Amino acid sequence: MRHIHTLIIGAGQAGLAMSRCLSGHAISHVVLERGEIANSWRTERWDSLKLLTPNWQSRLPGHSYSGDDPDGFMDMDEVAGFLDTYAQESSAPIETRTQVVSVSSDGAGYRVATDRGEWICKNLILATGACNLASIPACAGALPAGIDQLTPLDYRNPRQLRPGGVLVVGASATGVQLASEIRNAGHDVVLAAGEHIRVPRHYRGRDIQWWMDRTGIHAMTIDEVDDIDRARRLPSLQLVGSHDRQFMDLNTLQAQGIELVGRLAAIRDGTALFSGSLANHCALSDLKMNRLLKQIDDWSGAEGLPAERFGRTISPQHPRLSLSLRDGRIRTVIWATGYRPDYSWLELPVFDRKGRLMHQQGRIAPGLYVLGLPFMRRRNSALIDGVGADAQHICQSLIHESRRAA
User: Fold this and answer.
1) Over its length of 406 residues, how does the chain's per-residue pLDDT go in tens digits?
2) 8-state DSSP, 350
3) Beta-carbon neighbour count of residue 117 at 10 Å?
4) Distance (Å, rounded) from C-alpha 273 to C-alpha 405?
5) Are 197 and 238 in contact (CB under 8 A)?
6) Is the Cα torsion angle 170, 171, 174, 177 positive or negative in sign?
7) DSSP per-residue codes, 230-279
8) How far is it, in rounded angstroms, from Cα 131 to Cα 143?
């Protein structure tokens, strides 16, 4: 049994940022990591993936991108290297290859059991991320035998797919990127699109992320949002980490020969059933995009200039409402339907009736915090660029609570 003032679970960007902040205040701590540093970036991402944010936007407490391509986009090996360097510069006290088995209360602190022994800590910070498990709809259980199923956590490249058609479910950043890549590899692809957010890679000569950074959109707090639960569930922007394409949207995919259908509603008797709301989702997405662009125009003083606007999303006039999964066309289904965190080892009464972790801007209970979740405190809380401010906030809260308890 080992004792420590503060434990951090997870050595990704959130855990490392937290460690850096604690070290700055001379707070003794240890970071527990189930694999290696940046384990999820190394082992749970597809081969061609790049960050959706430019390199200059990779900023953590005391560390930022310093390479020769600030407007480029890091691939997964580069992200892992970036975080490795950060950990080394911070002298982060990390114990790798340490799997947390359970967390329970222990008097005024917490007992953390791992496959390498137990810890007792006064403060515990959960920095395991929001993308531990793929969110797969219940209807997946109704897929006919013989149809392969993959999630983005399993998918690496098109070479692992059997010959034949692929149904990609979900049209956020992940879904559109995978659909495009798989189609380029020669597969017949059907994309089921529900709610999505279309944006251009560039606007008025700047990357869209530059505008969202400078206008304060990324720094928007939970107090500025009418419905924080909905804001936390919004899909990621339809973007790809490349300057080669202005859009990675449904128009682009249709031009590649990908068939669009509406949101997957059910699978019955070997048939996929789709909603008839595709055109409405496309129109709403265009509306959201134009609201964002107007917000940028208003902020930049470009309101009086000719508006830079883009053609609408062209949805199929009569998209199919059903698709047989028994006739041999579709051989694989990829569930690009989002992710969720995994707290199955957390044996504490801190979940709501839907099984979601309850917290107030990262504080769960006395001495217990979470970091790196979507819109935890600000819109960019789950981004490399946003987690640092949240880590600093939690560090100050932890110090304040410790002083009150003394």
Assistant:
1) 899 999 999 999 999 999 999 999 999 999 999 999 999 999 999 999 999 999 999 999 999 999 999 999 999 999 999 999 999 999 999 999 999 999 999 988 999 999 999 999 999 999 999 999 999 999 999 999 999 999 999 999 999 999 999 999 999 999 999 999 999 999 999 999 999 999 999 999 999 999 999 999 999 999 999 999 899 988 999 999 999 999 999 999 999 999 999 999 999 999 999 999 999 999 999 999 999 999 999 998 866 667 788 999 999 999 999 999 999 999 999 999 999 999 999 999 999 999 999 999 999 999 999 999 999 999 999 999 999 999 999 999 999 887 777 6
2) -
3) 11
4) 57
5) yes
6) positive
7) HHHHPPPEE--S-SS-S--SHHHHHHTTPEEE--EEEEETTEEEE-S-HH
8) 24
Burial of 375 (0-12, 13-18, 19+ CB in 10 A): buried
Q: Are the C-beta atoms of 162 and 138 separated by less than 8 Å?
A: no
Question: Would you say 171 and 180 are in contact if contact means Cβ atoms under 8 Å apart?
Answer: no
Single-letter amino acid code for the residue at 327: D
H helix runs in 25-120, sequence order: 39-43, 76-90
- Give the burial string for 238-272 (b: 16+ CB within 10 Å, else e): bbbbeeeeebbbbbbbbeeebbbbbbbbebeeeeb
Stated pTM of the model? 0.95
Dihedral pair phi/psi, residue 278, rounded to 5°: -60, -50
Residues forming beta bridges with residue 9, ordered by sequence position: 32, 126
Backbone Cα Rg of the chain: 22
> Going by C-beta distance under 8 Å and a sequence separation of 6 or more, which residues neighbour residue 397?
362, 363, 369
Which DSSP string corresponds to 137-194? -GGGGGSPTT-EEE-TTT---GGGSPSSEEEEE--SHHHHHHHHHHHHTT--EEEE--
Please tell me the distance from the alpha carbon of residue 194 to that of residue 278, in angstroms, as a whole number. 7
Q: What is residue 41's three-state secondary structure?
A: helix
Domains annotated for the chain, with CATH where assigned, are 2-132+341-405 (3.50.50.60), 134-335 (3.50.50.60)
SS3 state of residue 397: helix
